[in-house]
Every structure is written in structure tokens, then in C-alpha cells.
Write a structure and sequence with these properties.
The protein is built from five helices and three strands. The longest helix has 24 residues.
Length: 148
Amino acid sequence: MSPGQPWLVGLRCPVSETRRSGAGVAPLATALGERLGLAPRLIGEPTEADDKRDWAADLRTGRGCLLEAGGQLDDALSAGAFPVLVHGDCSIGMTTLPTIAGHRQDVRVLWLDAHGDFNTPETTPSGWLGGMGLAGACGRWDPRLERV
């Protein structure tokens, strides 16, 4: 792999909102892959929608996906590649942002979303794990995920 080469991963595995949006990951990753001239690595399978808002249960079931996201990013950055991760859940930031910061201490992040994702288990009005991703990545609460 040459430095800067794209590393494209589509994470279809469930976390919280991914239960609804996971099915769109493969088509988007495939379309990006066609533009970049490479086949995406597709990981996991989307699941049926579950409208329950239980952040603790979502964290338990989504743990493998979250750790895989951080691991894929770590592998890409260690190889000198340009990582592109396709996923439909804001909670993915709990492992990806600390991974990037571990490789590049000068990294800056601009978080654009329809909501702030800066809730904690104590402040969440909805109980939705996807609304806690940025706060978890910034250390405002400990999701007990291994840092890469």
C-alpha cells in the first residue's frame, strides 16, 4: 500500500441508530469505492429496527462494532493510508476520535450534526447512545471502550 492510498471500510454492524441506517452503508461504500477505484471492506450486517432507547444495552451489543471501527482506523493510519469509514451512527466517534488523536495530536475536528452528541448517561433526555458519542470521545463519560 502506498502512503496516502484510500482505505475504505463500510461498517454495517449495529450500535444504536445503525439498526435503521446500516442497510445504507453498503450502497454508499460501494459508490465511494467506485469513485476511488477500490472495493470497500464491508464489516458486519445491519439488523432490524429497534426503537428502544437503552444506551447501556446498545453499548453492550455495539461494543464489537465500536472497537472494530477504532481498530480499522488504527490499521489504516499505521499503514500510512487515508482512511474513509462509512457508518450511520454518531457513537462511532467514541473509538475513532481517540484513535485519530493517538496518531495525530494536532488533529482538529469539526462535528456537524443535527444534534450535539454531547450527552452523558446522566444528562441524556432520550437514553440514546448515538447522542453520547462526542461526549464519550472527549472523556465526559467513560463508555469503558479500550482506547486504541
